[in-house]
Amino acid sequence: MRLQLFHRRFPLSINAARRSSLAALCSLPIPNSEEHERSAGPGESLSLRVERLRGGEPAASAIRSWMGDGFAVHRGEVFHAINRLRKLGRNKRALEIMEWIMRERPYKLKALDYAYLLEFTAKIHGISQGESLFLRIPHEFQNELLYNNLVMACLDKGLVSLSLNYMRKMRELSLPISPYVYNRLIILHSSSGQRKTIPKILRQMKADCVLPHVSTYNILLKIEADEHNIEGLSKVFNEMKKMEVKPSETTYGILAIAHAVARLYTVSEMFVEEIEKIKTGKNWSTLDILLILYGYLGKQSELERTWKLVKSLPHVRAKSFLLAIESFGRMGCMDRAEEIWAEIKSSKSTKHFNSMISVYCRSRNLDKASDLFEEMQANGCKPNAITYRNLALGCLKSGLIKEGLRTLDLGEEKGVSFQVRRSTPWLETAHMLLEAFADIGDLRHAKILFKEFKETKYCRYSFVHNSLLRAHVKAKVCDPELLRKMILAGARPDAETYSLMRLAEEFKV
């Protein structure tokens, strides 16, 4: 029986920024291979040989070199290389390897070999080529693994209608649908305009008797965290516990960071304790999360311990250096941040300089920030909107109001993506600017900044509204509608809110 091709639809328009931020949570897991043998010595692998190839060299040359040294081409070595290349985004190399495997047949082929071939064919040559390949694969291998990979390939191209047709075919054939397919569907509908579709996807998941995976809940938690919806976050986590799905390090990391951003530090610390209990080995992504969290919580000894673990890894990523710099800077450990800055051996980019400039500006050390800005330009790094926004904050904190406003205008001239504008560092810097304007009673600029928070839902936090209220009090202006607007935005008034409202009422006209 051969699959009949379905009617083709145009790709669905998706929010690329949100999709990329969630995609890591829903990759298809790679089944363990019973033939995962390692014949090579320590530190050597087929994967490394492929990764070292120059641009024009074919993957087959690395495999021939491997065989020439007396090593057999085992399925385990091949799958290890494929998974590494996928992580590195080298899909063309991965396809070259799988095409060689199909030609040379160094071992008996199984469904997973064809699944890999299908995945990378669709990625490199498009879904039409993937469908054509599917029809040529022996019928005995057209099982649930291959169908799920075909559906995922369609979803990766944004072809939702086509993927739904294949899912319908799977139901007809009584083939189980992977929860990772539903994960991808959720991500494709995670933008604010399409989120109403997510409950329907979850209902269909239940109707298909597909149990949500921990990664499914991680995606739902991340969506709520990105919307700064603490109440929604709690609902998803409670549902997860009700379904008896065991949280992962990623789960607790999302929860801890979301509560830290919301300044609910006690709750955040509870989730950090859970991460420490269940973390396994030296997972760099978990260690990066802990670097961020210990900076928020002001725990210097724990931050030092975590940084020591990061430094013991075979390779320390540039991002880890930046996270450590920002975390030590957040808690006022300027000397320590500067030491780590000096340890960065690679050539420094605008992103590197922005990280250290932000530390100086937040601590009112404008002279060092200015010196670093000059060094940045001397090194050929172009300042961007983030650079100027940090410098504007430094000027305002140092009492240089006119210079701060001019610098802020320079930043506005630089383009900035929505992905950057909704990022936590950008929003926190914007809030510090709002506080600086509130301190001097500059209500006009405070209101301009507050508009950014409406767009990104950051205004769901009471402390953001309180800063705007302080600007009103300092400017001796009363807006009786502020409390109502605050509640409608999803923020809960606290004791500070009511105190500021009483002060503002004194300026009623």
Automatic annotation (TrEMBL):
PPR repeats lie at residues 213-247, 349-383. It comes from Apostasia shenzhenica. GO terms for biological process: methylation. Pfam families: PPR, PPR_2. Keywords: Methyltransferase, Repeat, Transferase. Signal peptide: none annotated. Belongs to the PPR family. P subfamily. Its EC number is 2.1.1.204. This is Pentatricopeptide repeat-containing protein. GO terms for cellular component: mitochondrion. The keyword Lyase does not apply. It is an enzyme of class 2 (transferase). It comes from the Eukaryota. PROSITE patterns: PPR. The keyword Transferase applies. GO terms for molecular function: methyltransferase activity; mRNA binding.
